[in-house]
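Collaborator request, handled under Task 6.
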Amino acid sequence: MKHKGQIGALVCLAMLALTACSRIQKPEEAGSQPDPEPGADRVELHESEPDAGAAGQDAAVTGQDAGAAGQDAAVTGQDAGVAKQPAEGDVTIRYAKSGMKVSILGDSISTFEGWIPEGNSVFFPHNGAVQDVSQTWWKIVLDELDLTLCTNASSSGSACYGDSVSEDVKVGCSDHRIAQLTGSDGEVPDLIIVYMGTNDLVESVEIGDNDGTRPVEEGMVDRFSDAYCLILDKLKRQYPEAQIYCCTLLPAGDWGTEDQPFVTFVNGLGLTAEDYSKQIETIARGRGIPVIDLYHCGISLENMAQMTSDGVHLTPDGMRCVADEVLRSIVK
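Structure tokens returned to the collaborator:
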């Protein structure tokens, strides 16, 4: 009997051992799983891998969607910033200091007899209301900041577009006009102020879509944005150390009525000074060049009779208004 009891006890122990082993071999029967040991995640059940892959694909798709949303947000941000000049963090601006040499590339608004290169066309003082050079916007800026005029390469009737390899003074993007920015004694400017585009507006030159990121070939350039980009390219090549400033256009007026002397000028393409100004801002941002925003300097249809003599050419009051905006922009 004693032996039978021992045998029975051994059988019970064996059964308990078998039961314990079966529980170890079937972890899925347990209500919870212990934390895996380090490295345990490298040994996966194959049944689980397709699910994990699908989850990874879903995550990837979600990531793509998030990325697309981010791109959309970036595009929206770019659109929202169209009318803004580059922030100081995006472009290094060399501000005006006493004694710096300044050159101007402009049209009739910036001319004055005896102060522009021989052969260039003059508007002031024979036309309009400005009778003394001290009343011009650029001379006010020079005098108040103690700057030196390198050269005023402005010419009445000139536009940005045209044959870039010609010597026609009316073509702003020509080598001839760009070379005029060098002083008579060979001095190069420290600052260059570009204030052109009004005649492109008046002559209904197509704006085009060059945003400042595409190169332009020499020859006949018949779109405003291409011509403006070519001007900036040539300025940077010929005067690499100069700080360039781009001016937007002033609001341009057309003759109105006795009650409303001026109305907004709309050219043959249905475009206004604001349209060309926005393109200048876009190009300048693409080239990392600061903008002097003359379109919002304070001249409007409401005061245009005081600020201009004909909706375009400035009076002494208008010149002062422009000079103040230039001063605000080029002095830190």
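The cover message to the collaborator said: "The longest helix spans residues 49-80. The chain has one domain: 83-330. Please let us know whether this matches your experimental observations."
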